[in-house]
Amino acid sequence: SPTGKRALFEARGDIFSAPAEFGAVVNLTRSSGVAERYPRWSPDGKMLAFWSDRSGEYELTLRPADGSGAEKKLTSLGAGYRYAPKWSPDNKKIAFIDHVAKIRICDVGSGAVTEIDESPEWIAHGGLASFRMRWSPDSRWLAYSRPTGNANNAIFLYDTKPSKPHRVTTGY
């Protein structure tokens, strides 16, 4: 958690919050027959983002981190598998990559999803599961590395203001 007092994990399709030292382990989702994956705390610690297949397909879902209140499905992307969501520091955007290596950003307020980039080369499950993105402290820029089509990777910066990716390194 942002405070370091609790840890968040998935097990058997549910999301659990466990204390760092003392206290109860809490099943936050209690959703028999539903799989929730890749839970992530918002930077302010108030919300959780995760993928839920409650609708039949994995959709980005939010719920209060304290377990109170209902969950809210943010996306309606349909068929496919998505990987760990990455919150922006201002709690307003969530970036993620999917099974076909499309990098997207979801606006938390509206649920609007923007495809920002796509790998020209196939990336295996292991590479997608370990794909890293980092937000700038002001939540304007998203940095990531992806294949460039020549069997090498380059670093890209996505600027959310003009909604444009910039390749900032050569493909070596």
Residue runs with pLDDT of under 50 for 5 or more positions: none
Arithmetic mean pLDDT: 94
DSSP helix fraction: under 10%
Order of helices and strands: EEEEEEEEEEEHEEEE
Termini separation comes to: 36 Å
Strand content: 35-45%
Q: Which shape, going by the Cα principal axes? A: globular
Number of strands: 15
Strand order of the largest sheet: 4-5-6-7
Number of helices: 1
Sheet with the most strands?
4 strands, antiparallel
Radius of gyration: 17 Å
| Structural class label | mainly beta
Write a concise keyword list for the protein shown above.
15 strands, single chain, 3% helix, four-stranded antiparallel β-sheet, 172 residues, mainly beta
Write the layout of secondary structure elements.
Elements: E1 6-11, E2 14-19, E3 26-27, E4 36-41, E5 47-52, E6 59-64, E7 72-73, E8 86-87, E9 93-97, E10 102-107, E11 113-118, H1 125-129, E12 133-135, E13 141-147, E14 153-159, E15 164-167
Antiparallel strand pairs: 1-2, 2-3, 4-5, 5-6, 6-7, 8-9, 9-10, 10-11, 12-13, 13-14, 14-15
